Amino acid sequence: MTFRRSSDRLDILMVVDDDFDTNALCQTLLENGIDCRMERCVDGTEALEYLQREHGLLSGKFIILLDLSSPQVNGYDFLTTIRSDPKLRRSVIFVLSTSSEKKDINAAYDLNVAGYILRTESGVENLQIFRFLDAYRSLVTLSDLMLR
């Protein structure tokens, strides 16, 4: 799905299995006119297959938003695989989780995530999440995964 406002766009690969979360995030983009192209994979297996192809509709510079509790290949296994792949290890990954357990947070950072975003059940912070990711993309030079 594509949400456009200008030519300068945020590209996100979302690895989230929950349809409600996905719909809430997409609704936030639409309601606020956030210029974003987003691809969704429902689990780590699908995301790894997607990343090992030509990245679909995303540019070579994108951010991965990862739900740690995805089925099949869980978030930690996904991170371990990504970080051991020479072509994908530079991926910028933010974890999206409802777990505030120190062990979960530390395990994610041990696998070199760019950040751990703690979600509440209300979803009120969705706009803040996208504004943060857009600001991050604007300020930080992302590695181009297409250049191998």
UniProtKB/TrEMBL annotation:
Residues 12-134 form the Response regulatory domain. One of its GO terms (biological process) is phosphorelay signal transduction system. The keyword Phosphoprotein applies. It comes from the Bacteria. Pfam families: Response_reg (PF00072). The modification 4-aspartylphosphate is found at D67. InterPro entries: CheY-like_superfamily (IPR011006), Sig_transdc_resp-reg_receiver (IPR001789), TCS_response_regulator (IPR052893). Keywords: Phosphoprotein. PANTHER family: RESPONSE REGULATOR RCP1, RESPONSE REGULATOR RCP1-RELATED. This is Response regulatory domain-containing protein.
